[in-house]
Amino acid sequence: MSISCSVIRDLLPLYAEDLAGEESKALVEKHLEACADCKAALEDLKEPKPVAVAEEAVPLHLMKQLMRKHTAFWCLLAACLVAAVVFALIGRMTTTQSAPYVKGVFSFGRDEDGCLFAAVTNKAPDGVDYQVEYFHDEYGRECMTIAGYTSPLLRALCVNRSGTTLKARSDAIRYVYYCDHSRSGKLTLLSGPADYAASGGGAILPRLVLNYYLFASLALAVLFFLLALILRKKASGRTLLHTALAFNCYALAHLAVKGTNGITYFLQQDLLFILLTALTLFGAVFSALSLYRLQK
């Protein structure tokens, strides 16, 4: 009895898995002896097939990675913004201004080593700290200056230096001045012969270098931004853009900490808080750009 190929093809899966009955096996084997096509179909069934990965598994895996990156960048963005605000506030609270001279705030004497000292009396105003500086006058004499500084933090804490002693570093110092930086370094003689007092000009003036840093950062930000536009299609374009943003962050940090006033009496302190604020601002900008790229 002749059996069509279509019937044999229906039996081939059972035959290949050894699930067909004895009679069906005999029919299939007899047919395969004379039919090359059905024999090739059997060989094809016996070849191992690669396991297909579910199409939805790949997008789900990528989605999980994307969500983890989103979470990480959002956390970094929030942390950098909080840190930038904290550093800027601390920088503002510790930014110093010159305190004018208050008559009778110092009394003078000499210690057992013969060194001149200035004692802060109870007339000292709250929120004012005092620093000692030295300079040589036009006669070549070493003089001691006292400068008063105040800040929002000192005023908030109601700091009072009454009872503090400011000692000269040498027993040869005979002249002590109060230097009012708010009045272009005006010197007020506190102790020493008035007939030979210095005429001024030797006191340490507040520094303006932060203004130069601000203008330089703005100029460099514009320069690197233009270079980034020119080279935007090259790999270096993104690096140049990040550099421009870094200089912009420094300028914003300067405005956040010092405002438009670049005068500084303590350069290292002010510069430290500006740099810390700039660094955290750049971290926030970098996180925001990364989130934007992930959205795309």
| Percentage of residues in DSSP E strands | 15-25%
How many domains make up the coordinates?
Answer: 3
| Contiguous uncertain segments of 5+ residues | 54-58
Per DSSP E runs of 2 or more residues, the count of β-strands stands at 8
Continuous helix count: 8
The geometry reads as rod-shaped
Mean pLDDT: 84
Helix-strand category: alpha+beta
- Could you tell me how far the N terminus lies from the C terminus, measured between alpha carbons in angstroms? 68 Å
The portion of residues assigned to helices is 40-55%
* SSE ordering: HHHHEEEEEHEEEHHH
What Rg do the Cα atoms give? 41 Å
Report the major sheet.
Answer: 5 strands, mixed
Overview of this protein structure:
Helix content is 52%, strand content 15%. It is α+β, with helices and mostly antiparallel strands and 296 residues long. It folds into three domains: 5-46, no CATH class; 60-95 and 208-262 and 266-295, no CATH class; 97-196, no CATH class. A hairpin with a 5-residue loop joins β2 and β3. α1 runs parallel beside α3 (36-46), α2 packs across α3 (36-46) and α4 runs antiparallel to α8. The longest helix has 38 residues, at 57-94. The radius of gyration is 41 Å and the shape is rod-shaped. It starts with a helix and ends with a helix.
Put the structure in a nutshell.
The chain has 296 residues and is of the alpha+beta class. The protein is built from 8 helices and 8 strands; from the N terminus they run ααααβββββαβββααα.
